[in-house]
Design goal:
Layout lengths: L2 E3 H17 L3 H13 L3 H20 L9 E9 L3 E3 L4 H13 L11 E2 L6 E2 L7 E7 L4 E8 L1 H4 L3 E5 L5 H8 L11 E8 L2 H11 L6 H9 L6 H14 L14 E9 L6 E8 L5 E6 L28 E4 L5 H4 L7 E10 L2 H12 L12 E3 L24 H10 L4 E4 L5 H9 L3 E4 L5 H5 L2 E8 L8 E15 L6 H13 L8
Parallel strand pairs: 1-3, 2-6, 9-10, 13-14, 14-15, 15-16, 16-17
Antiparallel strand pairs: 2-7, 4-5, 7-12, 8-11, 9-11, 14-19, 17-19, 18-19
Helix pairs in contact: 1-4, 2-3, 11-12, 12-13
Length: 510
């Protein structure tokens, strides 16, 4: 009979969350490398190059792939013959492992978990508690999967109760374009079918823990082997989702998903529960087994196995911008899809800061920061270590700030914004009315972006932690004009163009 020691479980969980913060699963990276090779969209190809370069930099530097180091999700399968040498509950042991991982002094991870979610929303400071799923199984081992799921992809999760005769494919193809690009494609689509509503969601999440193997399924089909219905569905969805032309970062291109994973479960005769959860460009999970012999030993991937892709700022194709002298007139000259290299001082701010600014303006109070002719970057960075000016500092989903956009542009003097993914109609209208601009940075390239930040200091709302307002001094920070002063959005024009070029999914004109 196997005995699992308390310290072994805690240490294994701590090691696992550190491990996945800077090591992509190798299967994901190799699949992304193949997508880079076949991509024909210049914008999507550039975005993938940034993600691949960022991935290798993180593997080398042992720093987070994404500034959103995720909410800790843990799947635990406990063998029925296992005994415990422990004074803590399994849940407490897992949470202690998470706590140690996220507060590791050499690679401190961003704490994003908030207590009292419908009230004070107070940060737990150590990313606990984890979301833990248990299963009791035969055997004398404990199998554990640790995953870090970012808010950008989690927020795009969908669930529906279809009629038994409805088409799953039709629902996915109708729903996916409504999710925008905040989940940072190219990623993996997890789908749960059957059971009950909560079971379908769990199946979708668990399916994402599997390795990328759609190429094996394609080879199996090409060789004429018989496929299961789920395998057929995976292939059909993989082809048709990519034919939507959404592409990397939603800019339009050939690859939106690298794999489609499906798990199903028996369901009620009157029901067809369907859940869909995407995994982003910061795909992070690791599997290990405890058998009583000590902590898990996690094997690092070899750097030579990374695709030979290195992103560099293309000075011939990009326009350098001096943020310290920027004017509304200059912003109005920027064109959709234009690549800019930002230099000088920019401010940061995201959800909590925008809410506080709105409250202060509503009370007639003077803001602690002057936004006149400034750019704001939607970011919540990781704390720096060693000689870093700032830790990984990739963009957060811009649509969450849409409701504040008109206020910021008309009442503070702000003239442009930087974030990830698309802007909604409300924000685009405000940008057009004020001849401003929205610039997109690549989600999933947080460490690469941080290298452009020469200095960082908190200038307001220090009590908000990573959501405080910083002033960054940047050098050649790469961004793309995603919404220009005329209101043209590349997140609308790009996918439309590539859906037409691919030609497999009819385009409906609005």
């Amino acid at each position: 009979m196997t005995t699992i020691r308390q310290d072994d479980l805690i240490q294994s969980v701590a090691d696992a969350f550190q491990f996945i913060s800077y090591y992509h699963p190798l299967d994901y990276i190799q699949a992304l490398g193949k997508a880079y090779e076949r991509e024909q969209s210049p914008a999507a190809r550039d975005a993938i190059a940034q993600i691949l370069t960022n991935s290798r930099m993180c593997a080398e530097g042992h720093r987070p792939i994404c500034q959103d180091t995720g909410i800790a999700v843990v799947f635990v399968k406990v063998g029925m013959n296992v005994q415990w040498d422990a004074t803590m509950s399994v849940t407490d042991m897992v949470n202690e492992g998470v706590r140690r991982a996220y507060n590791h002094p050499d690679n401190k991870l961003r704490a994003s978990v908030l207590l009292d979610p419908a009230g004070a929303r107070k940060n737990s400071k150590d990313n606990t508690p984890a979301v833990i799923h248990y299963e009791i199984v035969p055997g004398d081992e404990v199998e554990i999967i640790c995953a870090a799921k970012g808010g950008g992809s989690e927020n795009k999760s969908k669930m529906v109760m279809l009629n038994p005769s409805d088409s799953i494919v039709d629902w996915v193809l109708k729903t996916l374009p409504t999710m925008g690009a905040g989940w940072c494609p190219p990623g993996i689509l997890g789908i749960g079918i059957g059971g009950t509503p909560e079971k379908a969601m769990l199946l979708a999440k668990e399916s994402l823990m599997d390795h990328v193997d759609i190429h094996e399924l394609q080879e199996k089909a090409a060789a004429g082997h018989t496929l299961t219905r789920v395998e057929e569905l995976r292939l059909e969805l993989y082809e048709k989702v990519n034919a939507l032309g959404i592409g990397a970062q939603g800019l339009g291109g050939l690859t939106t998903v690298l794999d489609v994973k499906i798990l199903d479960y028996p369901t009620h005769a009157a029901s067809l529960p369907i859940a869909m959860i995407p995994n982003c460009a910061a795909t992070r999970h690791v599997h290990f087994t405890l058998n009583g012999s000590g902590p898990a030993k996690l094997e690092p991937p070899k750097l030579e196995d990374w695709p030979d892709v290195t992103w560099h700022a293309d000075e011939k194709q990009a326009t350098r911008v001096n943020l310290n002298t920027l004017t509304k007139a200059e912003v109005a000259t920027w064109k959709p899809g234009q690549v800019l290299l930002l230099n000088g001082k920019m401010l940061t701010g995201r959800d909590a800061a925008h809410k506080r600014i709105a409250d202060m303006l509503g009370r007639g109070e003077t803001l602690p920061v002057d936004f006149t002719n400034r750019i704001i970057y939607y970011v919540g960075p990781v704390d720096p270590v060693r000689d870093e000016a700032v830790g990984p500092a990739g963009p957060t989903t811009a649509t969450r700030m849409d409701k504040f956009t008109r206020m910021m542009l008309e009442k503070t003097g702000l003239i442009a914004m930087v974030g990830k993914a698309e802007r909604g109609p409300t924000a685009i209208e405000a940008i057009r009315d004020n001849k401003a601009a929205y610039l997109m940075a690549v989600g999933g390239a947080a460490y690469l972006v941080s290298k452009a930040i020469q200095s960082a200091k908190v200038v307001a709302f220090a009590d908000l932690g990573m959501e405080a307002i910083y002033e960054f001094d940047v050098k050649d920070m790469p961004v793309t004009v995603a919404v220009d002063a005329g209101g043209t959005s590349v997140h609308i024009t790009g996918p439309h163009e590539w859906r037409v070029k691919i030609g497999k999914i009819p385009v409906t004109e609005n």
